[in-house]
Design brief:
Elements lengths: L1 E2 L13 H10 L20 E2 L9 H13 L4 E4 L8 H12 L3 E5 L17 E7 L17 E4 L3 E4 L12 E4 L9
Parallel strand pairs: 1-2, 3-4, 4-5, 5-6
Antiparallel strand pairs: 7-8
Helix pairs in contact: 2-3
């Protein structure tokens, strides 16, 4: 993996968000333990692009997209986003797509139709969240730029052991579009 925020540290998850979304994608199956990811037999390439508080810079996200593309990624999931457009980020997405990479992003948890990036780029598959009845959740961003929706309420996934309270198994519930983009 790679860490665009601190290249000498490696892709350490100091927030828990990455481990949780990656578990939805690639948690091992048929091991009588925990949960199984939707792509339980895939190889994962963790790329850290946000700080421990979940914030970050488009230039780091763009660097992570480029690094993953140049190192053989076939699909890039970005469980992140915001309302600001940046040509640097869009250029990185277009670069990945030009190399045959499928790019997916969370639509956002704003509960309105304010356009979110990178999800709203035409090259990106934008994923919103639904509730147990299949209806759009109250928190999910929406609009004609959203491509698909997936169940987004209390999805069980992997958690960081060191961030899990003592006595509990390292499995967390994910509610939000971050957990739906991987699905």
């Amino acid at each position: 993996g790679y860490n665009a925020t601190s290249p000498n540290r490696g892709p350490i998850d100091d927030n828990g968000h990455g481990t949780m979304t990656l578990g939805i994608i690639a948690a091992a199956a048929n091991n009588v333990e925990g949960v199984a990811g939707v792509g339980w037999n895939v190889k994962a390439m963790p790329v850290k692009v946000l700080a421990s508080d979940g914030g970050g810079y488009d230039v780091d996200i763009a660097e992570g997209i480029t690094w993953a593309t140049d190192h053989g990624a076939k699909v890039i999931n970005m469980s992140l986003g915001g309302p600001g457009d940046n040509p640097v980020l869009h250029d990185a997405v277009k670069y990945a797509v030009s190399k045959g990479v499928v790019v997916v992003a969370a639509a956002g948890n704003e509960g309105n139709d304010v356009v979110q990036f990178p999800a709203s780029y035409p090259e990106v598959i934008a994923v919103a969240a639904t509730d147990a009845s299949g209806s759009l959740t109250s928190f999910s961003s929406f609009g004609d730029w959203v491509d698909i929706a997936a169940p987004g309420w209390d999805i069980l996934s992997t958690g960081v052991r060191t961030m899990t309270p003592p006595g509990y198994e390292p499995y967390w519930y994910c509610t939000g579009t971050s957990g739906m983009a991987p699905r």
